[in-house]
Amino acid sequence: MIPRTARKLETTLLSSRQALPRPARLYSTPSKPHNSPATATATATAHPSPYDFHPFQQKPTPTAPDISDFLSRGLPLTIIPTPEPVDSKSTALDPWFPDSQSHDMVGIIDACLHNLHDVNRARDVFGRLRQRVGSAALTIRIYNAFLDAYLGMARKEDFKKKYWVDEAWQLYDIVEKGAEGVQPTPKTYSIMLSALQQYGPHSTEHLVELANAKDTEYLLSKIVEREIPVMEVATNSYLKSPQVMADIVKMLSSVAFNLGFKDTLKDLGHIGSITHRGSVLDDVPEIIPVQVLSTKPSSEADGIAETEAHVPFNIEALRRHLTEIIEARSVLDNDLSARQKHLESSVYDLALEQLEHRDKVFKDNFPRSPDLQHWIWMWHTRMEEHLKQIIKAAQSVASADRKGTSPSVDAEEEEELELEEGTKRRRRKGTKRKQTPEQLEAARKLRQMQDILPCLVTIPTHKLSLLTILELLRMQGNGGVINGMKTTAALITVGKAVENEFKMEVCKQSKIPVANYSIKRGNYFTNMGYKHLHERRLAAAKSQELDEKWQSDWSQAMRSKVGAFLVNSLESVAEVTRMKVDPATGKTLTENQPAIFNSYEFVRGHKLGVIKFNDAVCERMAKDSLARTIHARHLPMLVKPKPWINYNDGGYLYNKSSAMRFKDSLEQEVYLREATNAGTVELVYAGLDILGSTPWNINKGIFDVVVKVWNSGERMGKIPPAQYDEPEPVLEEGKEGDMQAKTNYIMRHKVWSQGKANNHSDRCSVNYKVEIARAFLGDTIYMPHNLDFRGRAYPIPPHLNHIGDDLSRALLFFSEGKPLGVRGLRWLKIHAANLYGYDKANFEERVAWVEEHLDQINESATNPLEGSRWWTKADDPWQFLATCMELTKALKLEDPTTYVCSLPVHQDGTCNGLQHYAALGGDAQGAQQVNLLASDRPSDVYTHISLSVEEALAVDAEAGNEMAKLLMGKIARKVVKQTVMTTVYGVTFIGAREQIERQLKDRGDIPQELIWGASSYLARKVLDTIGDAFRGARSIQDWLNICARLITKSIPEKRLALKRDEAGKEIISLPMKQIKKEQMTSVIWTTALGLPIVQPYRKTVRKQIKTQMQSVYISDPYASSEVNSIKQASAFPPNFIHSLDATHMLLTALECRNRNLFFASVHDSYWTHACDVDEMSEVIRETFIALHSSDILGRLEKEFRERYSGHQVALEHLAKLGSSRLLKMLKHAGCRIYAHRDQAQELRAVKDLLVFSDDKTSIAATADVVSDSDSDSGISEETISAKEMDEEVEEEDGEELSSGDENKAEDIRLLAGKFVRLSDLFPPLPSKGTFQVENIKASPYFFS
């Protein structure tokens, strides 16, 4: 570990780099929590502010005008080249999109260099990678890693010391000259200065006659020339020894004096002033632990039993691990974040010790039924031993192969070797002794491990074993596989866990301080405020980049191979012992069965590889404690999350996270990286930091009730029962020959079986929540956040967070309370009514409803389980119970308004997607439906739709429709709510049918065999009704959809290889058969906060990976394929609206932070203290108005024209056979192609879009394809063959094609090779209505 003096050097480095003010903490920790038992009902006269400023400080002024001006500014766009087809041989895009082979090479290099495992092999791979100059995979981090490794080899191989040091100087010379496109960093110079310190002229191990060595004067000159702060070099974390630092400072000071570098000399002088600071624990005595007495067995000599005192295991384990934390404190100082990092790093060690203890307890109390923890320990010990043996054997084979002494093949065998870059060669082995087929097969399998061997040996086998088991247990039941998981997902997840652990090991060795950076209060929506935010993040990010702690990501193929090896190893050793009593003899029978196995299932006609657990394991998972099966990256944090200082650096301190959840899309990652480097996403990162810094506590009152219900095993408040309580369907007697009855029975039993499996999965999910809540009782916890690709924020911990279900939300409340006040008490009552489901009345009626039910509320709070259980009838029963408890405590006080309440109170949008559509289009009718306009009581669009559907059903029922008769009186608001809500997000008929099917099943009054038909019928009725109600939103949806269709059919002009012929006519030299493959353009736009959104939908291209378990098919995120234009178009409207509500939420978070309000959100549901609801409501309205006053659609259109200015669209693809629907849509939307009259004949296939003009400047540019035999044949096949018609047209239009439509085929043939500018095809924006967004200020139910 680095001594404290060295740590202080790094601290000084960070503080001296930027003369920026020290950031205020987001939240302070109160000295006495108001929700403690002693003070929970006390009258509060003063309350500490959650921020570090004095209570008398003037309240910040609203920043609404600044927000509007900020959002209306011109946004700098992040634009990078469109990806090329996967079969492209071009290297032009390597700086942005490196291929999978490059990533695999980097992964192998990282693993081989770790602990100097195999430097020679790493150098061979590095040599091939360096041939790809300019590739994004080839970074200075790799060069620095080799410089470090070469010096490490010099220390390791004394006889080759001179060789390795000279290699380091030679590589440094290449870096310094920039010959391979990389530039040296402070770490580069630190490494080479350490080489001089060890082997230079003034060292004890001076090496003479080094061909490429430089001196200190040369290095310092380059440092000064590149304007690199010398302190970043002299105090770099690479220099782990204070003595080495001191020697280097001395060397640099002498040279700086001789060269006259006065500023450098001054900076170096600062280092000597750093002093040692004592530890706060220096004079603190040891704590005497609790001890218990136990009886020792009596000895045969005296027969007297003895007692002895010992420390209980849990206390002893806690003391040991806390001792490690205390020891770490000497290095990590008082930095809570660094100690959180230490906690994260020891997760597997803690789990291992706990499992070992449980195994000992089990053996001491045998015989008894084994629990899950005992099984995990048994599997772990067997798997660990198995891994040790097989990895050792693989290392032996690898060593023998390198030496050419491998005994695994005979004299006549020829072996094919697959190298990292994908090429193949053959070599003939020398004469070896004959091997048996079994030996040859074993050697072949060991040789297959060579690619993944470096990844395995970097992590101890006990961690490999444990993380495999825990990851599979965590995934159980995911992906719709009963009692198991999909093979591909499981293998990649386990491989990713190994990758994360490897990176964590590297990070631990680096001992890097956490960036001292947090968000200060202030106005971020001015140029100065934004600039200050950007500078602070850059300073913090720079300090982290200097350490280069993160390794390159592994490819999906590498992850799947590593995962397959580990899962296969677990399968071979994991067993469970099943016991059953023979009813005939009464004897207990036992049998060992595999605990986990792999097989195949057919899902929708496709063969799907699955991994499943034994039924006994699944039963235990639903009963036993799962606390030790949860990784730290799945838990809340004990300290505020690390600020997001880069797109891949923030959140957890030790476990690497990304600010965005990339959907297997390298393009998304590249855009976010470039936007981060350009400094256009500062407010996005600031918003995430604010969300993550909200402190939470576990609600002890709710937790106690939940534990009682959980342990009872009964169903209550959406907690599933321990035993599935639905009766199993049986076939009626005498109906065995009735085919209809038998079909109904099979269908009902299938539904029952699925319900039983879902009950088990839900039970496991609740088990996780309860265990986590129990572990964090009494602690203040934090939820690090990141984004999905649309910009929506989510907590990273998946099991227990405020964005989860009703139970999860009820278990959490703010760690600090505030006095209710008069308005806060009113809002708490309204909140209670909302949670119960009485949320469509006006506010006064809701308050009155609560006051009418105070007796039931009091009974629910004081006697939730033994009373009437009235609270369980609420829509959100657990949150309602939590509110009942708070209300009861407040009302017991003489002055309820003084009660200090920590419960979050919600303000929810009304069908928020439609609210955004109404504001975008100025739709007055839509605005009225979703409460954008003032009214005496809230509008309820869901009830309106349900009543309209009931009217339609009544008409059908009178006409004799049996399905309508079945559904009459059953169309409650809840049945249609989800479908109405998601219609504006692009829900399809299939999606709507599935949503309604779930609601009809929950009713329980419709026969199972009729639900599918009923849901299909009802889905059509609901969608027809919605179409009439949401006409205002439809025009904007159509405009967005058409823009997406055109974008995805476009090709960058450069890819068409445009040139002019002798007549001056523009022609395209790209062969026609390549044009379809070049349709690679995704729909990309930028939010008002500068976040680039990239839709990831491309045609699935899967790569087969043969593993030791199964052949799995994975999608390669580094291999770009054609865009899926259907998915891109259908998903664009909902994704765009999601990006708007995400922007609105982040704006609200930033402004609430500026106004000193606690804030949390669940997408369009915003939370704060009850007393602050009025002020937060004001902020919600101000930010919504500012956002929609910034001409969102106009800015989007402008961005499209700029972003795709050089793109062309093939007219042939607009007018293909069967695509007349697309042409009609384009015409209806106002798309036009301006052409000269002499082009009328050749463009007659798109005549509906033509507008003739004699003004040549307005004519849309068209280009012809160069004629060649290949392209002509390609045109003919693509254009007139109905059988080979483009699959997109079939899916989009579903039109019947006439095989004899010769005229149209001829018209389309004339379009072949003709292109038009995309910017000329975009339709005009839909006209805007009369609604003014400022009107929402008068609407009390906009968010309520």
Report on this structure.
With 1344 residues, the protein is of the alpha+beta class. The protein has 49 helices and 32 strands. The chain has a 6-stranded mixed beta sheet with strand order 19-28-32-31-21-20. A 3-stranded antiparallel beta sheet has the order 5-9-8. Strand 3 (414-418) and strand 4 (424-428) form a beta hairpin. Helix 14 (347-364) packs across helix 18 (461-475) and helix 18 crosses helix 21 (556-573).
Strand order of the largest sheet: 19-28-32-31-21-20
> What structural class should be given to the helix and strand makeup?
alpha+beta
Rg, alpha carbons? 34 Å
Report mean pLDDT, rounded to a whole number: 76
Count the strands? Answer: 32
Count of helix runs: 49
For the biggest sheet, the summary is:
6 strands, mixed
Structural shape: globular
Low-confidence stretches: 1-61, 273-282, 284-292, 311-315, 317-339, 407-432, 1267-1300
The portion of residues forming beta strands comes to 5-15%
Gist of the model:
It is built from 49 helices and 32 strands. The protein is α+β, with helices and mostly antiparallel strands and 1344 residues long.
SSE inventory with pairings:
Layout: H1 4-17, H2 64-71, H3 100-113, H4 119-129, H5 140-156, H6 161-177, H7 186-199, H8 216-225, H9 230-234, H10 242-259, H11 262-271, E1 292-296, E2 306-310, H12 313-332, H13 336-345, H14 347-364, H15 372-403, E3 414-418, E4 424-428, H16 437-448, H17 453-457, H18 461-475, E5 484-486, H19 487-510, H20 527-545, H21 556-573, E6 575-581, E7 588-594, E8 596-603, E9 606-613, H22 615-621, E10 642-646, E11 649-651, H23 666-678, H24 682-692, E12 696-698, H25 700-712, H26 739-775, E13 785-787, E14 793-795, H27 806-810, E15 812-814, E16 818-819, H28 821-836, H29 843-852, H30 854-862, H31 877-892, E17 900-901, E18 905-908, H32 912-921, H33 924-929, H34 941-958, H35 962-967, H36 973-983, H37 989-1003, H38 1008-1029, H39 1031-1048, E19 1050-1052, E20 1058-1060, E21 1066-1068, H40 1072-1075, E22 1084-1086, E23 1092-1094, E24 1102-1106, E25 1111-1115, H41 1125-1154, E26 1160-1162, E27 1165-1168, H42 1173-1188, H43 1192-1203, E28 1207-1210, H44 1211-1214, H45 1220-1229, E29 1233-1235, E30 1250-1252, E31 1262-1265, H46 1269-1280, H47 1287-1293, H48 1302-1311, E32 1315-1317, ...
Parallel strand pairs: 21-31, 29-30
Antiparallel strand pairs: 1-2, 3-4, 5-9, 6-7, 8-9, 10-11, 12-15, 13-14, 16-17, 18-27, 19-28, 20-21, 22-23, 24-25, 26-27, 28-32, 31-32
